[in-house]
């Protein structure tokens, strides 16, 4: 059984290819059932997000399995002349497991340490499990991957420290106010960055949203998204008095919030703290505003500096996360290899025993009457020869079982001796207990 990953993402494929190979949640069960009918595919999971589509499969034959997956993807594309290989990346055996563990840990995401991907991995596996497209190897692989993702987020801070402008604004606001529960925000300008920042603030407890824009209709449209209120642009001063957090991102060519305006506003507020986030270029807020009592002002460069510092912190945590991934990979392959090594050793010993008994029977028939002592000596000799021949392969196979390629050596041995392993196509079930493995090996 061979583990493989075939996928594409924003780095390898343009959007016109990615969108054709994106699967909705409702489409996944049928797609998985279709894929599992292809030659050599014994179990599979399909992970489809906005940035990636990946197939994880356990194959009885690696070459045929990869061919089947590519054929499946080509049929999904409905473009016979498309050179799909140009957009795909392929991971096999150890690299397949390493890749999935990194994905679940947020180490392979566009945003290092993102938390959403772990839930997406879990959902992809649950859908595959419900569609009965998995097998024992895939089940254990994804159980382990999800556990690795949880462990990374528990034992490191890779998902802490905002690494986007909008999240950085939320983090800074929380630091200033302690909590965002019950706070009010004023959005000046109805652009995408303002909307995204407001979305994150509302998700973190902000309850009142005011939107002001030179185009009142656009202000109304954005305010409705947050259950807020649109206000005329000439009511800006009154809104500044009410707001705790101000997000400004207009297309103005000069500052629209000046020190003298904010000074009057703060006097009226009795210098109650206000957080101004200026993400416009050119800037909407005169930098002198930051000198006024009670005012905290961050512009786009300030926020980017915060993001850069936080990204460096996440990179430090990523080193810790990678160590966890490496530890867990070793444990997974230790389990995986025993799934092949134990039955292979049993089959190899049985193979040797059958040869011994068959050849002894031939020899005894030719030798005629023998004393019991003579028969015992011949039997002992045959037993010793067979054991001596098989001893080194078995010892080496046990040693290889502790490496990342143990299962590969196992399959080679099975092919060399033409061993027939009962239940070689591993079906759903619990992994063999450690004590059971030790007893057999």
Automatic annotation (TrEMBL):
EC primary class: oxidoreductase
Tetrapyrrole biosynthesis glutamyl-tRNA reductase dimerisation domain residues: 320-419
Pfam families noted in UniProt: GlutR_dimer, GlutR_N, Shikimate_DH
EC number: 1.2.1.70
Keywords noted in UniProt: NADP, Oxidoreductase, Porphyrin biosynthesis
Pathway named in the protein's UniProt entry: Porphyrin-containing compound metabolism; protoporphyrin-IX biosynthesis; 5-aminolevulinate from L-glutamyl-tRNA(Glu): step 1/2
Site entry: Important for activity: 99
GO MF annotation: an example: NADP binding
InterPro entries: 4pyrrol_synth_GluRdtase (IPR000343), 4pyrrol_synth_GluRdtase_dimer (IPR015896), 4pyrrol_synth_GluRdtase_N (IPR015895), GluRdtase_CS (IPR018214), GluRdtase_dimer_dom_sf (IPR036453), GluRdtase_N_sf (IPR036343), NAD(P)-bd_dom_sf (IPR036291), Shikm_DH/Glu-tRNA_Rdtase (IPR006151)
Domain Quinate/shikimate 5-dehydrogenase/glutamyl-tRNA reductase: 171-306
Amino-acid positions noted as binding substrate in the UniProt annotation, renumbered to this chain: 49-52, 109, 114-116, 120
Active-site residues per Swiss-Prot or TrEMBL entry: 50 (nucleophile)
Residue span(s) of domain Glutamyl-tRNA reductase N-terminal: 6-156
Catalyzed reactions: (S)-4-amino-5-oxopentanoate + tRNA(Glu) + NADP(+) = L-glutamyl-tRNA(Glu) + NADPH + H(+)
One GO BP annotation of this record: protoporphyrinogen IX biosynthetic process from glutamate
Annotated NCBIfam families: hemA (TIGR01035), PRK00045.1-3 (NF000744)
Function: Catalyzes the NADPH-dependent reduction of glutamyl-tRNA(Glu) to glutamate 1-semialdehyde (GSA).
Similarity comment text for this entry: Belongs to the glutamyl-tRNA reductase family.
Note: During catalysis, the active site Cys acts as a nucleophile attacking the alpha-carbonyl group of tRNA-bound glutamate with the formation of a thioester intermediate between enzyme and glutamate, and the concomitant release of tRNA(Glu). The thioester intermediate is finally reduced by direct hydride transfer from NADPH, to form the product GSA.
Domain comment (free text): Possesses an unusual extended V-shaped dimeric structure with each monomer consisting of three distinct domains arranged along a curved 'spinal' alpha-helix. The N-terminal catalytic domain specifically recognizes the glutamate moiety of the substrate. The second domain is the NADPH-binding domain, and the third C-terminal domain is responsible for dimerization.
Subunit structure: Homodimer.
Protein name per Swiss-Prot or TrEMBL: Glutamyl-tRNA reductase
Organismal lineage: Bacteria, Bacillati, Bacillota, Clostridia, Eubacteriales
């Amino acid at each position: 059984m061979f583990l493989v990953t075939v996928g594409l993402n924003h780095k390898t494929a343009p959007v016109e290819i990615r969108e054709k190979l994106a699967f909705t949640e409702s489409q996944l069960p049928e797609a998985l059932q279709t894929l599992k009918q292809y030659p050599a595919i014994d179990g599979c999971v399909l992970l489809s997000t906005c940035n990636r589509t990946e197939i994880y499969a356990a194959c009885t034959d690696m070459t045929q399995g990869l061919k089947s997956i590519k054929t499946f993807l080509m049929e999904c594309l409905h473009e016979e002349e498309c050179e799909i290989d140009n957009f795909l990346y392929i991971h096999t055996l150890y690299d397949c497991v390493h890749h999935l563990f990194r994905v679940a840990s947020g180490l392979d995401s566009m945003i290092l340490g993102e938390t959403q991907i772990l839930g997406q991995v879990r959902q992809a596996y649950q859908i595959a499990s419900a569609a009965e497209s998995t097998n024992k190897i895939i089940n254990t692989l994804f159980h382990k991957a999800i556990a690795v993702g949880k462990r990374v987020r528990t034992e490191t801070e890779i998902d802490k420290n905002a690494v986007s402008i909008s999240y950085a604004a939320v983090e800074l606001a929380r630091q200033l106010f302690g909590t965002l529960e019950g706070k009010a925000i004023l959005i000046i300008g109805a652009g995408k960055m303002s909307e995204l920042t407001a979305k994150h603030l509302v998700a973190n407890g902000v309850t009142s949203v005011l939107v002001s824009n030179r185009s009142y209709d656009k202000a109304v449209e954005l305010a409705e998204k947050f259950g807020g209120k649109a206000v005329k642009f000439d009511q800006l001063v009154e809104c500044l008095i009410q707001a705790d957090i101000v997000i400004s991102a207009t297309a103005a060519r000069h500052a629209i919030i000046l020190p003298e305006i904010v000074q009057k506003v703060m006097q009226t507020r009795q210098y109650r703290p206000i957080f101004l986030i200026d993400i416009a270029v050119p800037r909407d807020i005169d930098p002198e505003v930051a000198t006024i009592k009670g005012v905290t002002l961050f512009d786009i460069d300030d926020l980017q500096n915060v993001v850069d510092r936080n990204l460096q912190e996440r990179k430090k945590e990523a080193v810790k996360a990678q160590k966890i991934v490496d530890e867990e990979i070793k444990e997974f392959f230790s389990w995986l290899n025993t799934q092949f090594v134990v039955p292979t050793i049993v089959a190899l010993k049985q193979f040797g025993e059958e040869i011994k008994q068959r050849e002894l029977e031939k020899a005894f028939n030719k030798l005629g009457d023998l004393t019991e002592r003579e028969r015992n000596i011949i039997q002992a000799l045959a037993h010793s020869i067979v054991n001596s021949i098989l001893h080194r392969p078995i010892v080496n196979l046990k040693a290889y079982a502790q490496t990342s390629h143990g299962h590969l050596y196992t399959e080679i041995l099975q092919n060399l001796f033409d061993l027939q392993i009962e239940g070689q196509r591993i079906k759903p079930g619990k992994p063999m207990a450690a004590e059971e493995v030790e007893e057999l090996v």
